[in-house]
Every structure is written in C-alpha cells, then in structure tokens.
Amino acid sequence: MGPSHSEADTPPLAFLRAIRYMTRMHEYQLIDGDQTVYRDGTIKLHTEEGYEGMRAAGRLAATILDEVADLVQPGVTTESIDTRIREMMLDAGAVPATLGYRGYTHSSCISINHVICHGIPGEKVLKDGDILNVDVTPLLDGWHGDTSRMFFAGEPSLKAKRLVDVTYECLMLGIEAAQPGARLGDIGAAIEAHAKQFRYGVVREFCGHGLGRLFHDAPEVVHAAKAGTGPELKPGMFFTIEPMINLGKPWAKVLGDGWTAVTRDKSLSAQFEHSIAITEDGNEIFTKSPTGRDKPPY
Ligand code: MF3
Ligand code: CO
Ligand code: CO
Question: Rounded distance, CA 161 to CA 270, Å?
Fold first, then answer.
C-alpha cells in the first residue's frame, strides 16, 4: 500500500509526512460539493448530498445481499455467487469497488468457516453446515456502500449458529454506541464487552473504516477499544462497523495469496458489516436489508 518510493521520498520526508498524517487524524473536513476528496487522514463530514448518495449505494448493497440469501446452498461455488454479484452491480449502474482494488480481481469477498475475511471467490463448492460471510461494496454515482452478512449452507452446528447470532449482536451494540458526542472507542468497547461474555476472540488486525467518496478512509474503527477514547463522533461522519469474532483466540494470519485471512487456531469466525452515518440525534444505517433479511436464517 502507499505510494511508490521516489527520489524525494527520503527518510526524513517520509517521517514528516507520517507525523503530518497522524496529527490530522482528529481533524475534520467538510465535504460539500464535487471537490476531490483525498485520503489525507482527515475525518470527513458530509452534507445531505452525501447522505442521499450513501442511501442509494447502501440500499443497492443490501439488496444484492438479499439475493445472495437465495443463492447460498450446498453444491454452489463461491465463484458463481461472485459472478451474480458483479452482474447485479453492473445492471444497477454501479461498479464493484473491489475489482482492481490493490490488485484484487473479484466483485466480493466470500469467507467460509475459519476464514476471517477477504476470502477470494473460486471453484470451492459450499458444503452442508458451512457458515460464510459475503461482503459487497458497489460504487454507485461516486459513493461506496459496504456491507456484509453471514449465510448458512444447509444446517450449521449449534455452536456455529450461536457465534453468528452473537456477532450480529456485537455489530448492533456497536451501532447503538455510535452516537453524536460519543467517542470512537465507545464502539469497540461495546463490541468487546459483549464478545467477552461468550469468551469469543475479537479480531484486531482488521478494522471498520471511514467511507463515502473513498472506499477506505479515516478513521480506523477498531472493534476492541477503551470507552471514552478516540475522536469525537460528529454528525456527518460516515463509517463502517464490521466486527470479526472468533470462536477461539483472536489471532489472525494471511495466507500466501496475500488476501485470505484465517484464524491461527483454525476456529470458526463470523462477521457482519454495516455502513452508517452519525446524525444530529443518533445514527442512520445505510445498508439495512429492505426485506428484513439482516441475519440468518433467511
Ligand atoms: N469490503 C471489505 C471491507 O469491508 C474490503 C474488501 S477489499 C478487497 O472493507 F480487496 F479485499 F476486496
Ligand atoms: Co468495510
Ligand atoms: Co466490506
């Protein structure tokens, strides 16, 4: 990641740039028109135009996952699900934000069982009892709608179903904590406290993120944190919350393909993701299922 090194990118300059980036982490910037938006470490605050753009992108993302619920069953390949997702995005006038993103060549991430996130769709065939996360990000009219849900192929074990239920509860508790005037750390604190009650591991290596015109922007939304820490949540902020919760230890590793993240102890992992906004009096979820299919069974 990051720009390639140039002659000018001597260590002192890179160092100064890093300091500048870090000091900007709690700076806010109003996005109120067609200006170019940079990944400069500032937290963007949006206007009504942004909310409208995100509602459309978020609704499309959620509608796509509604249809994925009908596609997931034993015997189906993850590649075939990805292909249908790409078609749905293109039909709606959107493009998959993941296609070509840092060299990624698919339109979704499909993460089965002990895969935490960024599973690459392929010839793998779903089998009875698999639990899987499908993560989609259509880019519609310049706005990113990023959401994921868990799906069941056939009938998973009771312990797998409980993990999925608790992970959904973690997401919703995180969203409840996302209030104007609260701190970013309050979100991770709420998620971690809930997961802890079940002795589940909260993944640290991957975070939620600011989004809008950009796919991955400041702030980093960690899913385990200390309450009362981090930047203040202000109306106009758009970000994802996407807790990854493991049945076992929290530790992750990335496979040789450079993408697939798995649990080190091979335990099952679950994840749900919504794109939300902070509003004057609470928050707005952009990626709620229009048909109420926010969590399985569907
Ligand atoms: N949608 C993922 C997220 O929630 C990002 C996937 S990037 C990819 O942030 F390149 F792996 F697709
Ligand atoms: Co995301
Ligand atoms: Co996502």
Answer: 10
Name the stretches of the chain with pLDDT < 50.
Answer: 1-8
Q: What is the chain's mean pLDDT, rounded?
A: 94
Nearest atom in ligand 1 to 102's CA:
10
Is the pTM value of this prediction over 0.70? yes
Q: Backbone phi, then psi, for 173, in 5-degree steps?
A: -70, -35
Tell me whether strands 261-263 and 252-254 are parallel, antiparallel or unpaired: antiparallel
Q: Strands across the sheet with 115-117, in order?
A: 115-117, 261-263, 252-254
Q: How far is the CA of 147 from the CAs of 23, 27, 83, 128, in angstroms?
A: 30, 26, 17, 24
| Residue nearest ligand 1's atom 4 by CA | 146
**Percent composition of the chain: helix, strand, coil (DSSP 3-state, to 5):** 30, 25, 45
Strand pairing report for 109-112 and 43-46? unpaired
Assigned CATH topology for domain 38-285 = Creatine Amidinohydrolase (3.90.230)
Q: Which residues line ligand 1 (CB under 6 A)?
A: 98, 101, 104, 109, 118, 135, 137, 146, 242, 259, 273
